[in-house]
Amino acid sequence: MVKSAVLGFPRIGPNRELKKVTESYWNGKVTVDDLFKVGKELRAQNWKLQKDAGVDIIPSNDFSYYDHVLDLSLLFNVIPDRYTKYQLSPIDTLFAMGRGLQRKATETEKAVDVTALEMVKWFDSNYHYVRPTFSHSTQFKLNGQKPVDEFLEAKELGIQTRPVLVGPVSFLYLGKADKDSLDLEPLSLLEKLLPLYVEILQKLAAAGATEVQLDEPTLVLDLPKEVQAAVKTAYTFLGNQAGLPKITLATYFGTVVPNLDALKELPIAGFHFDFIRAAEQFDDVASIIGANQTLSVGIVDGRNIWKNDFAKSSEFVQKAISKLGAERVIVATSSSLLHTPVDLNNENKLNAELKNYFSFATQKLEEVVVIAKNVSGQDVSAALEANAKSVAAKASSTFINDPAVQQRVASIDKKMSTRAAPFGERLAEQEKAFNLPLFPTTTIGSFPQTKDIRINRNKFTKGTISAEEYEQFINSEIEKVIRFQEEIDLDVLVHGEPERNDMVQYFGEQLKGYAFTTNGWVQSYGSRYVRPPIIVGDLSRPKAMSVKESVYAQSLTKKLVKGMLTGPITCLRWSFPRVDVDQKTQALQLALALRDEVNDLEAAGIRVIQVDEPAIREGLPLRAGAERSDYQQWAAEAFRVATSGVANKTQIHSHFCYSDLDPNHIKALDADVVSIEFSKKDDANYIAEFKDYPNHIGLGLFDIHSPRVPSKEEFITKIETILKTYPAEKFWVNPDCGLKTRGWEETRLSLTNMVNAAKYFREQYKK
Ligand code: MET
Ligand SMILES: [Zn+2]
């Protein structure tokens, strides 16, 4: 009998129970016992769900109150002194490391003021983990025994689980040295760390665990030799310890083939590989499976929401069975299901036809079970038949296919993706038309999204105010933002985006080819969840999406108002994409829809148009090579298709944040002006990388994530530093990103200081 396995299940609860209780705990509204009670209920619920679905190998320790990588830092006592010194409880230490803590002194407690550890994207997903942060003073030791406790909790419910932990090499390699120990190489700590893995695995064995899953997703990256060697060292060491649970080493999100040598002849029980993302690795990885080792076949997509094709998947698993025999093959999710929404049955508004094509985490449990049964020769004909019908219906669905869009994509040519003249000529025309001062000031688009805005949006969605009333409200907000910007004397104004709930969803809702969930939440970090829209079919724009607001804003002022759109790559990356066509095609479809919008804005008199691409960096394939260079090529092409339909004198801006950006990558977009998140980087090498960037550029001068107000002098110092490398003629003055999460008061103060700093430099540079 072939077994089924799940690598991890969403921890947030079907109705975001975890978010609600953690935030209440942070606000002091519930006690720590209330918090733990909900956590315990969620874990029990998830295990039972999996057990009832018939899953054979059910994970434990996939639960976390914040982030499972952070849990491991706590477990191994990788806690910088700045957190331990307050002697907080373990859970409060966890939260302080995850999100920082600022607390005034009370009669019983000391004041606390500590910032969060660095948080970064988990590979190419939109999940963020908290970076393990090591220093010379790190004292490895076991701090509690969370994996054991949770294993026992499940056992008490009569459910045998397979505990999952991030493996030692990934834990170190994904971490970093703390500020006080910059010369420390985290990987050099492997020898000290391994005994702790042994200790916790021994405890698990003593508690009754027979197997564990150790996640080593770093194996899908381009790894230096020493990291490959560390994998060999670590698993040879762990595998040779007597009395530990059987170890399955799990990798996901790509191919391990370039690192395969590190996996050969390891004394462990088996491997898990992701065949959704890298089916082509099958022959290579199968060849290193030892005579007694198991192969867990990741064939149910942990990263997307499309229903599995049982016939195709079964065929794939059969290949493994004929090579290794049924008893050594496991049918599994490709990765943890953490990246998918919890339950499709919570969607009441979704179109029934579309619903029939989707599968969320709960549905994916049935999928691994059915495939496992099918390849074991059990009768699952009813499930197979229903599945085959749904697969066939999708292939010919009118929701999916739009021949007109397909033709239009096929007709994209070089001319469509190239501006009429090179940057120099465009700039001359723009300068003549705009007459902007040196050091022009602008913002990135959004202004504070006040409670009032959210209340009115909700009223409109619920139908308690009419479309006219809502439009009037939005217009009054736009007017407020325009007057404000005039008053503080910014040069290029924006309308403030009050009408937008989210920069992708707002456009997605107006495009044909998109579907939306009401409850399809996915954890992004801590208690922040997102609800990615789903690209279901060929994408097109039935009518203008943003023209009305921009035109209204421009009608209120003589200054330039910048139109504001979300770019094709960002729309794609922050959605669940289709899997029946490639991402390039979807990006180009979005690009064409946006091209129409850009052209309409221009025709309506908008002379500066910004197309935001904050997600362009995260789309970069994890490994160097053809796929990565292809991506760079088509991502840039999509942007240019969207923005090249305008006249030379129309100025195209773009904006990037959240990323370590390579200037060479954005050169190919050929935007006239780009703004880049910079306030947290602030290092001379990074500025130097932009030295030869040909077009104009604004390095974000203040952090919009913080309410802190930088003084005029601080802005001046910052600008001076950049001017050492970067010429004044190319210099734009702007914040890091949009101001939607800020309050009005700090926005007014910060922007006023920023504008005054720009004016100071204008005086300095007067001829
Ligand atoms: C994450 S990038 C955000 C850009 C958008 N125009 C804004 O100002 O909010
Ligand atoms: Zn941004």
TrEMBL record:
The keyword Amino-acid biosynthesis applies. L-methionine binds at residues 444-446, 497, 612. Its cofactor is Zn(2+). Pathway: Amino-acid biosynthesis; L-methionine biosynthesis via de novo pathway; L-methionine from L-homocysteine (MetE route): step 1/1. One of its GO terms (biological process) is methylation. Its EC number is 2.1.1.14. Belongs to the vitamin-B12 independent methionine synthase family. This is 5-methyltetrahydropteroyltriglutamate--homocysteine S-methyltransferase. The lineage of its organism: Eukaryota, Fungi, Dikarya, Ascomycota, Saccharomycotina. The gene is NDAI0A01730.
